[in-house]
Design the sequence.
């Protein structure tokens, strides 16, 4: 059936035969030269490729469907390490902890880029290859599709009974009238129609050629192109966007410039000039705690009341906003999110002369859902030696002989602090970056009490206790709250979103639009029975008498099937609902795609 | 009714539905046990001589009945056998309908038991309960269209197992939603993800059946070529595998299930997920382990759809890919919640996780000293 044009134009499968043999047979160098006279080119062995041929071969390999499939699976495989190993772009803290635990593996992992898999050269290489493969696959298909969309339904195959779905029945009537009826039915089923009256095809047959489902390939192309759009949007976000976090005391303020951030993660092409010049203050912060029930001690909800100005330089109007989880504040293209909160006890350290060496709300970071929190105070100056305090804060203090001190709930009903004291060198003079939430204990010595246990300061609000060795005093003066605010600008997010939505629409088209070809051939009842195909000699007797109607359906979707249902539907419409397609005595033959060979043979030909 | 009553109702409904699923399972087993001795296709061979029409009518009763033919059963075991088999199937389907309805009651009352009332998608217990519910519901919805009754024993057996695991190991008392989940996107995101999961799961069943049947047919063909049995005497196929649809039919059904599930999954993880993530976590794509695995699942199923269009990857290889996809899907559904402490999706984790607020990463540490 290779000579039938119907089956040879195959756009679904991008697999093409390679145009160059890969295994070059060894050839005796003394054999006759294979180069033509006057070509001046060096001798070529058979199977050897010129540079251009090599390029073309590589391109064909890269853009083949099989390669795309392998690359897709590679992307899936390559994404796995990033879900197992902590990623610096996601959780830098976890990366640090992991590296401390695995000092031997860390250098190797760092070289392989395993702490930022999704920016690593090898991950990028895979998805860029996939994109190239995609473009290489799509561009020729665009051209093919541009032609196919205008193409007429192809000529009928000579023998319709060799199609996977076909039927034939005997009826009576005028050939061209039957043809027109078939055309009407198919047009109603939204087929594109070409009618061939009696005389155009040999053998005195009238033929209807019909095709539908042109939009399926359009959907397919839209889907693949949209993937590129998504990628562009995603790239815009990671190149020009930024994300930063800041812990702000309730009552405090923030203005959007780089120096105010605690942590900041800009895209590689981001520039500080692009930052929106907004500012806000956190006026108040409310938490609604569950005081009973299964969620006892958890927060029902929390909200920060902000006052913000969109342009702090211009001094635009002040506006209020209630900032909550799932309810970010959008200013221009920047979004402000409330993602956390905690306690900041007000701590004052005085020296032996009662002069203040340190004073202020000190941010303690929660370590569990009861807001048991950890924090440090660094006093570099003002005392006889540098002093570091570190310890825990319990919003609702309780003591258990086994567990030690703990916090019952997150609400501050009975807040306490328990601090240890270290003296010596805080390491702040070296100029190296240092966490404000942890002590560098390399130069510090833990103060001990008389029994050799760590010296503890257990403080209640308003309480003042002495530091060891007459260094001074520590007071717990009050309690404030802080909010952690995340600020991010993600350009291209709408590009990415429209890309995905388009991709979904294209996907729906490519999955559910059924491309089909149908041929109906109406011809006089053949004199030699049903054995011969159309065009046999002696059956070109048009006119009254029994008529053979043959229908063939070719389902061109990639295996969704349904050609049999379509055939049944067409048959019913052609013969009326009364004619039982299955049991009628006029039925001659019918087949559906039950034979695997018949189902696949037409589609694998490419 | 107060919340405690709703919670009791939910627990009882889940227990009852598990029991009814089990009865449905037994009914289907009874049906298939009765079919065990009936050879497949005997009447069909007789019918070939009688004309194409007879073959077609056999096909249609086989399809209508979910894999068995009345004449065959009657030829092998008399009218009693026909009645028994038909009874078993009808009973199985009826019990499944009841079980799914009661399961639905359990799900709804679980939501009503919370204060304030909410959708029942707050923790692993509820996700698993919803997932198995949608597997049952999807099966029932497609039962007539695709004539899936032969899938009955597998679906009911699967749901019974999942519900047992859910109640025994995953049970959590009713609790309010955590703050981060308190969003309308929860409904859209989770519903679409769960529906896609259910359809992918059904597609996984048919893929497994495809592989088993393909293997059985290959073995049978080898036996024939090896000369076992008299030449000309066809090997009599019996049992469950012989009655599920042929390879083309299984492959097509698998494809249709995936073709439905894949766009829904796309919608869930690549549209609603990022929109919600943007609102809750400030980034629409965080490379969170759950997101990564949802993406991996998406890619594998995309590869499955590609494989069906690629020569050399069809059939067996495509079915294998579908199963790889299902493995990543279930690993993501179950595994990530327990194995990944860093995932912002780990709602199964005990309450003592180190978080500031659900969803917020701990504060970065490498900061310049503050003046």
Sequence:
């Amino acid at each position: 059936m290779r000579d039938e044009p119907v089956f040879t134009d195959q756009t679904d499968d991008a697999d093409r035969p390679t145009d160059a043999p890969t295994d070059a047979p060894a050839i005796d160098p003394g054999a006759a030269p294979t180069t033509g006279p006057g070509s001046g080119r060096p001798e070529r062995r058979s199977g050897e490729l010129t540079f251009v041929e090599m390029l073309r071969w590589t391109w064909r390999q890269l853009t083949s469907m099989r390669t795309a499939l392998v690359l897709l699976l590679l992307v899936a495989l390559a994404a796995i390490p990033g879900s197992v190993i902590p990623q610096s772009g996601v959780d830098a803290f976890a990366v640090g902890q992991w590296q401390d635990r695995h000092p031997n593996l860390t250098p190797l992992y760092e070289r392989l880029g395993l702490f930022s898999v999704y920016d690593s050269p090898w991950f990028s290489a895979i998805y860029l290859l996939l994109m190239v493969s995609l473009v290489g696959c799509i561009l020729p298909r665009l051209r093919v599709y541009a032609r196919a969309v205008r193409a007429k339904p192809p000529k009928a195959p000579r023998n319709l009974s060799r199609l996977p779905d076909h039927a034939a029945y005997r009826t009576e009537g005028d050939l061209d009238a039957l043809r027109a009826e078939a055309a009407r039915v198919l047009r109603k089923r939204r087929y594109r129609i070409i009618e061939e009256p009696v005389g155009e095809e040999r053998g005195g047959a009238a033929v209807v050629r019909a095709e539908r489902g042109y939009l399926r390939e359009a959907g397919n192309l839209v889907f693949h192109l949209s993937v590129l759009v998504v990628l562009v949007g995603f790239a815009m976000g990671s190149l020009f966007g930024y994300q930063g976090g800041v812990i702000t005391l309730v009552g405090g303020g923030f203005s959007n410039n780089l120096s105010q951030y605690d942590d900041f993660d800009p895209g590689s092409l981001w520039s500080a000039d692009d930052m929106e010049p907004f500012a806000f203050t956190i006026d108040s912060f409310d938490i609604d705690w569950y005081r009973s029930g299964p969620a006892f001690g958890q927060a029902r909800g929390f909200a920060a009341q902000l006052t913000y100005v969109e342009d702090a330089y211009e001094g635009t109007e002040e506006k209020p906003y209630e900032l909550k989880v799932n309810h970010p504040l959008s200013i221009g293209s920047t979004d402000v999110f409330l993602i956390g909160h905690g306690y900041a006890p007000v701590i004052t350290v005085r020296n032996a002369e009662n002069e203040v060496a340190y004073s202020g709300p000190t941010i303690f970071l929660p370590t569990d859902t009861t807001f048991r929190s950890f924090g440090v105070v660094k006093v570099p100056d003002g005392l006889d030696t540098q002093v570091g305090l570190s310890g825990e804060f319990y919003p609702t203090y309780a003591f258990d002989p086994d567990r030690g001190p703990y916090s019952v709930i997150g609400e501050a009903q009975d807040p306490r602090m328990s601090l240890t004291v270290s003296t010596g060198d805080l390491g702040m003079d070296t100029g190296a970056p240092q966490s404000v939430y942890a002590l560098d204990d390399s130069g510090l010595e833990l103060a001990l009490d008389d029994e050799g246990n760590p010296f503890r300061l257990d403080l209640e609000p308003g309480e003042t206790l002495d530091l060891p060795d007459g260094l001074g005093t520590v007071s717990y003066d009050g309690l404030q709250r802080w909010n952690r605010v995340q600020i991010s600008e993600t350009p291209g997010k709408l590009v990415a979103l429209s890309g995905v939505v388009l991709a979904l629409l294209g996907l729906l088209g490519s999955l559910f639009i059924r491309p089909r070809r149908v041929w109906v051939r109406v011809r006089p009842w053949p004199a030699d029975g049903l054995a011969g195909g159309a065009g046999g000699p002696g059956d070109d007797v048009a006119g009254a008498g029994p008529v053979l109607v043959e229908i063939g359906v070719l389902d061109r979707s990639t295996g969704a099937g349904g050609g049999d249902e379509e055939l049944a539907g067409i048959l019913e419409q052609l013969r009326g609902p009364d004619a039982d397609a299955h049991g009628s005595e006029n039925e001659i033959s019918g087949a559906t795609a039950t034979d695997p060979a018949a189902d696949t043979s037409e589609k694998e030909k490419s | 009714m107060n919340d405690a009553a709703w919670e009791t109702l939910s627990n009882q409904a889940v227990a009852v539905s598990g029991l009814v699923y089990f009865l449905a399972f037994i009914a289907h087993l009874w049906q298939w046990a009765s079919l065990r001795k009936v050879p497949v296709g005997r009447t069909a061979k007789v019918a070939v001589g009688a004309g194409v029409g007879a073959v077609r009518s056999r096909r249609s009763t086989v399809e209508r009945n979910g894999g068995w033919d009345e004449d065959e059963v009657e030829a092998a075991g008399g009218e009693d056998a026909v009645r028994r088999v038909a009874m078993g199937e009808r009973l199985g389907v009826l019990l499944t309908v009841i079980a799914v309805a009661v399961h639905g009651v359990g799900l709804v009352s679980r939501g009503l038991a919370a204060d304030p009332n909410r959708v029942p998608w707050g923790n692993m217990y509820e996700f698993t309960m919803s997932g198995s519910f949608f597997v049952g519901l999807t099966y029932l919805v497609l039962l007539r269209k695709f004539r899936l009754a032969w899938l009955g024993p597998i679906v009911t057996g699967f749901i019974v197992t999942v519900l047992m695991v859910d109640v025994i190991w995953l049970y959590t008392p009713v609790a309010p939603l955590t703050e981060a989940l308190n969003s309308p996107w929860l409904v859209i995101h989770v519903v679409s993800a769960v529906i896609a999961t259910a359809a992918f799961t059904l597609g996984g069943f048919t893929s497994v059946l495809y592989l088993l049947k393909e293997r059985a047919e290959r073995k049978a063909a080898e036996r024939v070529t090896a000369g076992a049995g008299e030449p000309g005497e066809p090997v009599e196929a019996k049992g469950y595998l012989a009655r599920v649809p042929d390879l083309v039919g299984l492959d097509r059904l698998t494809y249709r299930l995936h073709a439905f599930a894949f766009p829904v999954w796309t919608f869930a993880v690549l549209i609603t997920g990022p929109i919600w993530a943007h609102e809750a976590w400030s980034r629409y794509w965080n490379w969170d382990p759950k997101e990564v695995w949802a993406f991996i699942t998406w890619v594998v199923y995309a590869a499955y759809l590609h494989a069906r269009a690629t020569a050399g990857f069809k059939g067996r290889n495509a079915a294998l890919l579908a199963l790889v996809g299902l493995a990543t899907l279930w690993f993501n559904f179950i595994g990530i919640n327990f194995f990944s402490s860093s995932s912002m999706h780990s709602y199964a984790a005990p309450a003592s996780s180190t978080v500031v607020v659900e969803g917020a990463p701990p504060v970065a540490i490498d900061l310049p000293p503050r003046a």
About this structure: Residues 1-39, 531-542, 579-587, 590-606 of chain A have pLDDT under 50 and may be disordered. The two ends of chain A are 13 Å apart (CA to CA).
